Amino acid sequence: MELPNNLLEPASGSEPSSRKRMVFMLGGVGLFLALLVGFNVFKGIMIGRALAGAPQLPETVTTTEAKVAAWQPALNAVGTVRALHGADLAFEVPGVVARIDVAPGSDVKQGQALVTLNDEAETAQLRQLKAMADLAAVTARRAKEQLEARTISPADFDAAEADARAKAAAVQSQAAFVAKKHIAAPFPGRVGLVLTSPGAYLNPGASVLTLQQLDHVFVDFALPQKAIGQLRKGGKCTATLDAYPGRTFTGQITAVNPKVDGSTRNVQVEATFPNPGSLLVPGMFANLSLEVGTREDVLTLPQTAVTYNPYGTVVFLAVKGKDKAPLVAQQVFVTAGATRGDQVAILKGLTEGAQVVTSGSLKLRNGTPLLVDNRVQPSSDAHPAPQEQ
Q1: How far apart are CA 179 and CA 120, in angstroms?
Q2: Which helix (H) or strand (E) holds 254?
Q3: Labelling 57: which of 168, 170, 181, 301 has CA 20 to 30 A away?
Q4: What is the DSSP letter of 243?
């Protein structure tokens, strides 16, 4: 069965009408999008204007008053405590320990006997040599009398005198050997641990005990070569140690090395400290502060108040603002000097009495309203010390 031709052929004018509908649809979508974008832009503008007109919330900060304080220029270093005299004592000869005459940790005088090795055989030999030396001395004296009486030749007298001197030298040598069997205190000080017991056999050089003189101690430290011009013998220095928090020891420079270390470009310095009670023990480390230059009055601030930027060093002041913001932030460029503990010296850009923001400055800009809360202040200690837990 065949369909009529008018049903198989597309109706005339259907294709142009479809295109018109498509154009109208696209136009409507474009108009909708344009209206939507315009509305969002208008909304953003209105929100921006509203935010610009809204008051800015204040930032909470702490402040302090810039004050003038006495400032003593100082050099800081870390040093090591060393005894005025200190030695690990040992025997030069082998032997068996016969007697220990000192208690560990006791104070001894110079020359006091400490430890003795068995020396019976060596002492007996010394007595024998003394007897031979005495006989040789008598023989030499008689030979001199005979020489004066011309009963012996000068050669016989020379032989007798040389034998006497040789026997006396043998006695001296043996006496020195016997003395090596005894250890006596070479200087007054405090004995450490005794590392042997009676009956123990000791080889030469084996450490027996340590002896340290602690009424005064040295503290050795190093400083950069640029500090040499500021060092002087007799200069005052102070030391603090972790073992004694809150306590300061005072001493003076006693020696400056006449040469600079070629590898580190540092100069070695020695300071002497009185040590009552023997609190400073050799080997401890100490934080040193050396007074250099003259004392002067400068403005000081906590180091937390200063911000170091590539374009300069700044602080924020708390100054009077408008009625709605009694205090606002004002950025000021300053010239910072040396530091001392938690403090920094301000050389230029600040006047005494200014209210300076000490914490919270990282979130500030010019004109930021401030809310001051000084219940907790950052540390501003010139000589801070670690707190014990």
Answers
A1: 12
A2: strand 249-260
A3: 301
A4: T
